[in-house]
């Protein structure tokens, strides 16, 4: 499947089948408001191109049974989610059901050659398992600003050696398929919108609290990326003029207070001065502490860890309250590694947002944890590239 749909009607058919699964021709005609002859013409062309195939017959609705159409069973998309400390790779079918998912730890600061090589290694393993004989496209997320048009990172604060690296071009050549590159939080938002808690919401925010902090902004069903690809970079909103230094070079940023890296820094300091027995023992065992250690300490009831996590939630809530008043979303999704702490973090964020934002903006505003967790980014990557493949080349169907 190296082609693209020939017209908007074909693109609509493909996207409807992606969202609804196998569908009868009668139902497709009703949903798309196409005549039987016009629909038959478009489906015949899509079948010739390898996009769709027949899948038996639907139950009779009083007359001749309508045949069922589905996306080709051989369609495969790849989602690659590159985080600060790990890489996740998944293969999906045309309906974006995950068929295989692998992950490995690798630091993004090791550079694009090493990290992208590791991603390709995981793709190779999934291919060897028979999950993906052919690949029809890949969507890649990276933890920094991206020029979506050019497929390159743009001055990413925690990614030395990545600035302007041709990620899209390099990976497209390696995979032999079209590739799109976006910020990792944008992909997580797309994933939640397609198959997670935001399925029925077209205006929402997804806040990722991990090694860094970012926000995916979905408005009217589309990701808002901004002019230079840095929309949603809320981790670098300053909340204290006298705060600690941040990786971006400024001081007092939200990320310097509330990210997983900041929590690990504060936990290490607390362990060394004996404020937390649990964290001190963990530090002695491993030599380093991470946000996961704080999550475990919270689960064990460690008061110092609980206080740290609540402090993180309070800071995030401060910034989020302003965003809610400005954007007026229908939903806020909290995701990322630190969100693994669950309701202890969520309760503090909710408390601050509901208290500080105007009642008109928060009266019917759910603030919830991600449903997809680690799969959000890879599902979002598959969704991103499927939007591209299931669209008219250069046409308005692309998002």
Give an account of the 3D structure.
This protein is of the alpha/beta class and 399 residues long. Helices cover 42% and strands 18% of the residues. It has 14 helices and 15 strands. The chain has helices at 8-20, 25-32, 36-49, 112-128, 167-175, 184-195, 254-258, 260-272, 277-286, 291-299, 303-327, 343-356, 359-362, 376-389; strands at 23-24, 52-57, 67-71, 77-82, 86-92, 98-105, 138-142, 146-147, 152-153, 179-183, 204-209, 213-219, 222-223, 331-335, 367-369. The strands form four sheets. It has a five-stranded mixed sheet with strand order 6-5-4-7-10. It has a five-stranded mixed sheet with strand order 13-12-11-14-15, with helices on both faces. Strands 1-3-2 form a three-stranded antiparallel sheet. A hairpin with a 5-residue loop joins strand 5 and strand 6. Helix 6 crosses helix 14. The longest helix is centred in the last third of the chain and has 25 residues, at 303-327. The radius of gyration is 23 Å and the shape is globular. The relative contact order is 0.13.
